[in-house]
Amino acid sequence: QAVVTQEPSLTVSPGGTVTLTCGSSSGAVTSGHWPYWFQQKPGQAPRALIYDTFNKHSWTPARFSGSLLGGKAALTLSGAQSEDEADYYCLLFSSGVRVFGGGTRLTVL
Amino acid sequence: QVQLQESGPGLVQPSQTLSLTCTVSGGSISSGSYYWNWIRQPLGKGLEWIGRIYTNGRAGYNPSLKSRVTISLDTSKNQFSLKLDSVTATDTAIYYCARESQGYYWGQGTLVTVPS
Predict the structure, then answer these.
(1) Looking at the predicted structure, is the pLDDT value of residue B1 above 90?
(2) Contact A88, A20 (CB under 8 A)
(3) Nearest residue in A to B35, CA atom
């Protein structure tokens, strides 16, 4: 089973831009991994932001975007706001199963 | 809009079987091309994918849990369920159900505690 890796923590300034990445121990992440990105705030269930690499849910703020970057899945936040402070998880499809990354704690400071 | 709600015992004794149900509203569990998932999260820790079942009843599981897990559909009740055998304290977590297909829709989660 592949290990999915994310940055443990990142900090972004209000109004700034930050990119979170999601890598796989099995090699480059492609669209065939059907990457998902989730946001989780304290005490809440996760909610999906991005599915299948770059598609957005109806509730996903426009400042979030998904892509593939340097062999990884990427979530870019442009114009960070205080309410974006949260844990972010990616989810990949690999060898017939789904695998979560360890999560990135994003601080807006 | 689809809604999912987990239910089941909040306390399970060691070595027993954890059984949870996810009730789906706002859509039929047997129509469409959906995967019905179970995920868990130990308190203060990350998410762990447990497994999923497709609309046709075909299931896939996390290899680390596969020997203890069964996910099934009950189309008559519009529910799907999770059974996890031989639980220990390490199975204590918030358990979530979710629908996957062109998006991911989560239940609110339910805390299950296995005392040590």
Answers:
(1) no
(2) yes
(3) A98
